[in-house]
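Problem 12. The chain below contains 813 residues. Write out its predicted structure in token notation.
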Amino acid sequence: MAALFTEDPLFRRIRKHAEQRLAKISKEDRGTRTKAYKKFLTLENKMLRRYHRQGDSGIRVTRSRAIIIDVLVETIYKDAINEATKDSKPPYKISIIATGGYGRGELCPFSDIDLLFLYPDTLRGRANKQYQEKLTEAILYPLWDLGLKVGHASRSIKETLIEAKSEVKSKNAILDTRLITGDRGLFQRFSRAIDRFLTREDTSHYLRERFASQTARRRKQGDSVYVQEPDVKNGVGCLRDFQNILWMSRVRFGTGDFSAILKRGYIKRARAKQLQEAYSFLLRVRNEIHFRSSRPTDLLDLEAQPLVAWNLGYRQKNIFDRVETFMQVFYGHADVILNVSRYLEAKLAKSDLPDRTPIRFFDVIRAHKGLSEKPRIIDGFVFSDGSITPQDQNVFKRDPVRLIRVFRHMQQYKATLNLDLKNLISESVPLITRRVIEDSSASSAMRAILQSAGDVHRALIEMHDTRVLGRFIPEWQKLTCLVQHEYYHRYTADIHTLNTIKELDRIFNERDRLADQYRNALRQAQYPNLLYLILLLHDIGKGIAIKNHALNGVAIAEPILQRLEVPEDLRGQILFIIRHHLEMARFWQRFDLDDPKTPESFAEFVRDANQLALLYVHTYCDACGTSEGLWNEYKNTLHSRLYRETFEVLKNKSALNDQSRERKMSAYETIKERGITDISGDEIEAHFSLLPERYFVHHTIPEIELHIRMINRLLTNIHEAESLGSLVPIIDWHDDLERSMTVVNVVTWDRAGLFYRLAGAFALAGLNILSSKAISRSDHITIDTFYVSEPQGGVVENPNARKVFSKAVNDAL
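Solution.
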């Protein structure tokens, strides 16, 4: 630790200067000394402020202040010894030890000064006790007189260890200790005792406790780096996250720095340097907050941000531009700390640790019978025990589209990304080039991610944390770390957007009054899951400006929808909601709902029940994702009343039917123009005339073409066959890797119980049915589509499954 204060010429110069000035002050009487000490601290603080304003790093400034306080404590200690002993020999020696942040040598301008007065374990007798009290007061009173906030404890080595055993905060404090002055031999015995204590303690318990504590603290702080008013000390991705890594390393490896972490290859040296630079930047921000407020505050509130940004060198004249630029840098550094600290916490809490969890009899039986899940290799990834790991380090280099598909696999298999895989994904982000962005299979995988009702937020937050989301949708990247200068918004634009998606997941998953209410409304929409894509893009216009962001969002979103290959008839609905996503709340805030003309006017504006349902649920998710408490029962009542009454107005209108007819005619013209090899125009026309309009709404052009070919094969078999064998169904299997499932189409004659027989055949084949749809032509030919997976999820890989299914279907029919 001493090397920290000699490695830099600045530190040596500060110590020498302080020692020279304080040596003169020490010769004065007590009253004069106090005034002189105050003047000394005032001048030293001005010097520190000057270093800070000149651009010195946060680490340098905090260590410089620690040195100044060190010299002050040393001087006061010598004076206290002289006063307590009256030139006689002290009855015993003590050590004055810095703990906590001061012990790390990081002391912000108005931070607490934590001291431990360490006494020998053999201390006995009333006289010795009186000497202890007298000496302690002689040191503390001058420090208090100077206006310093001093936390202190007077203990022996034994008492210190007992306290550390009983209270985690005390244990953390002794992990950062440093001798300021006093008996070096006593301090060395103290250091050895701590090392023995940490070795003998239940290391795994402490590390897991720290891991759990960090999770709880982050949740309390909003579980996001991107809050509008971050707490620089205790916020998510802030100073405490970095410090926690050092505590865990101290307990785990016996050294509270990055040397052991680097030696074991947990992170690369460049990443460690990036982490330390981020930490130093946050210290610099904290120093500025302290200097500005002249008190130990850690909240970077909205009022402080413009001046803090200016004083740290962000000199844009427009106050909003200045704050945005500064806060984006702040969030970027905090994001580095959060991602690396989460990764290292998990590694330190898990890796190589003896597991003290009791072994259960059931676990032994499972292991003996080989019931644990066997690893599976799919698309270059290893799936085992609910975790995904890369098959090798080149998995993304061989196929960069996997950088999108891996999140669909995670979603489909209900798995988590292994820490090393997350790290590899982050490092591989540059592989997402324009070719990947415009790749059809990548777009298909992204659409599949956004269609998995109830489980979208988990995938998108991982994509965001690994920087894949902003890379794959470059327009969305502009929302990252974007401060929203609006009263109600607590989060940056990117996190607000992801929070709205989290709220939609809740609507699909939970069973409470509000979730039921909005889920029932979504059922009125043709494509309820379409709302995920709408929410993802609804604030995309804020990348240009907050003002008119809804209108700007339409222009930005349209090429994104084309790139993602969203069907053209759906793009209009999406763009309508983006353009008007604020209108429903404005309507019930502005107009009288008791007036019958109000729902009529809104019905004329929204046009159809489908768009009404999407806008209704969108408005609720948008508000809930803005800040806690923004939505209340009164707003919900007005919002729901406008929805119900508008829905009644629209219920008898035929706009939805008109859209279905338009979709059917568009599909017919497209297929007729393209043509299908060896199939007559009459057969194509018959297919369109024999099916209801809803079929053409829910099927794509390639699916319709496939069904026409399958029906042609069925009719050909009937014409050529001489027996009932012609009734054998036509089956088509297609692996959809992007959506991590297999699509099975079955075309045959309709008959009683057909659907249940097909479902039973899949069960015999050992496959899971994820979803299905069935429709019959008026000539009794039925088209059944099943979306299936292996029992553990994913595409059907078992070669026998198809044979078993086909045999079961033939036997049943």
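Discussion. Residues 175 and 247 are 6 Å apart (CA to CA). Students who got a different answer should revisit the alignment rule from Section 12.3.
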